Amino acid sequence: MNPGPAGKISGVAEETSKFQQLRDRYEWLDHVVRAGLRYTERHGDHYAAAVTYFSVLSLVPLILVGFAIAGYVLFFNPELLQQLRHGISANLPAGLGTLLDPVIASAIDNRGTIGIIGLLGGLYSGIGWMSNLREALSEQWAQPPATPALFKRLGFDLATLLGLGLALVTSFAITGIANGFTRAVLQFLGLSGQGWAVVLLAVLGVLLSLAANWLIFLWVIARLPREHVTLRSAARAALLGAVGFEALKQVMTFYLGIVTNSPAGALLGPFIGLLVFVFFASRFTLFVTAWAATARENELAEPVDVPGPAVITAETVLREGPSRGTAAGLVGVGAAAGMLGMSMLLGRRR
């Protein structure tokens, strides 16, 4: 018997048991593993790719429509509109803000020419994007698929899209207005040139950006799935999403800086960076949703199929002719009778 394979098998079992011991010891590790399994089993990467496609396809129409509406609403308050633009640039990696800023400026300047057709086109693409995003998030929550009526589904997707747009505008406005207000206060106090004041302003900007991201992730995790979940169950996952999204922005800023150094990257880098950023942001959003869904207070037991009632039926077997035992007995009796008849016949002849 070769001890090599047995040693390997025992080693694997030992390593597995050690990892299971670590999972039993550290709740956060067990939670991460459960979230990863949920993300994988629920086809997270496939849904992230689909969300990325529809996001990039719908991004420009949504920006045009959104800022055309904002241009009308904030026509008499251009400072607030500029702060909103600054908030969007602050929440995007460096490079993507410069890519989308001309689109935003064009939407504001040409808000009168977008018209009803542009509005309907933007809403159509936005509803399609929202439908796919809701499907992906609902899958991570393990919610059963639903097929509501067409107009009911479109109405719900439109309401959800408007709610997400309001959450985005609110978070961006908080970032832009708060940063502008803080700078104005420091200038009024004559502290804008102080080093500690600059550091304080940077820390405050990061905290405000985290608060804005938390608001967005809270809305996405709790209100975008087909069946709403409580805000309390999504609060901690939204905090994880806010911190992770800031880290993702820093990584993407470094990545875009490398990509745009070459001549070809200067032309195509922002577009490639946009695709990569949206894809990883989609994957991260779905993972955070899986993390929220696999929390102890949210995890539901898998439904077990209930067996049907027992049915007792009487088995009736119909045979043509005698059974095997009866046939064997008859053959034996016939053989004995034949032998007896032969002996009697022989006796008479004698």
Structure keywords:
350 residues; single chain
Written description of the protein model:
This protein is elongated. 80% of the residues lie in helices and 0% in strands. It has 11 helices and no strands. The model is unreliable at 6-10 (pLDDT under 50). The termini are far apart. The chain has one domain (43-293). The chain is mostly helical.
| Whole-angstrom Rg | 36 Å
Instruction: Please state roughly what percent of the residues sit in beta strands, choosing from under 5%, 5-15%, 15-25%, 25-35%, 35-45% or over 45%.
Output: under 5%
Report the biggest beta sheet as strand number plus sense, adding barrel if it closes: none
| SS-based class | mainly alpha
Assembly state (oligomeric): single chain
Shape: elongated
How many helices? The count is: 11
Q: Please indicate the count of domains.
A: 1
The total of beta strands comes to 0
Mean pLDDT: 74
Helix content class: over 70%
Order of helices and strands: HHHHHHHHHHH
Query: How widely separated are the two ends?
Result: 78 Å
Low-pLDDT segments? 6-10
